[in-house]
Design brief:
Blueprint (H helix, E strand, L loop, with lengths): L3 H4 L7 E8 L3 H4 L11 E4 L3 E5 L7 E2 L10 E7 L6 E7 L6 E3 L2 E3 L4 E3 L3 E6 L2 E8 L6 E8 L4 H5 L25
Parallel strand pairs: 1-12, 3-4
Antiparallel strand pairs: 1-11, 2-12, 3-5, 5-6, 6-9, 7-8, 7-10, 10-11
Length: about 180
Amino acid sequence: MADAFETADTEETVTCLCITVYHPEQEKKQVFRALKFCQQQQLRADELVKFGRDPSACLFNFVDGRVSRIQFALHFFRHFKSTEFGFEIKNLSKKVKLFVDDVELAYLNKVILPEMCLVRFGDYEMLIQKQGGQSENCFEVRFELAKTSLWQKRVPERHPVPESGISYTDTPIEVDEDE
């Protein structure tokens, strides 16, 4: 008799975008109140997912008059001659530039999202992490809320280097006396 493991249907995994959001005045202004946190939302693979202020045009809304009606869009795709899936991000705001890590996107510019990146526009910060899957029918989006700035965590603290080119630190460095 075959055991249950051998006869069970194999479950197809779904690609998931985990999006951690931050705004410096998120508690005071409640700019993320239209987002559903800590739950996966399944979307069709062919759906263009728009983010912005207009709830009639965008699936994910920011409650903030300074956000464009349609700020940006994500598009799910399969890499050419590959089984791997990815996402493109396109800036749809004529007024606000979008940054993907250190790449600046003007209106209608788009790039492929890396596995993990920091997306910024205005005072908004979004850490986007892709968890791979095999389903070509759908993908999922899950939102988390950050308590502190995501940008400051990603930018390494830089110490000034004096003109001599020798950088000084607070920690002692062991040096051989013969050097």
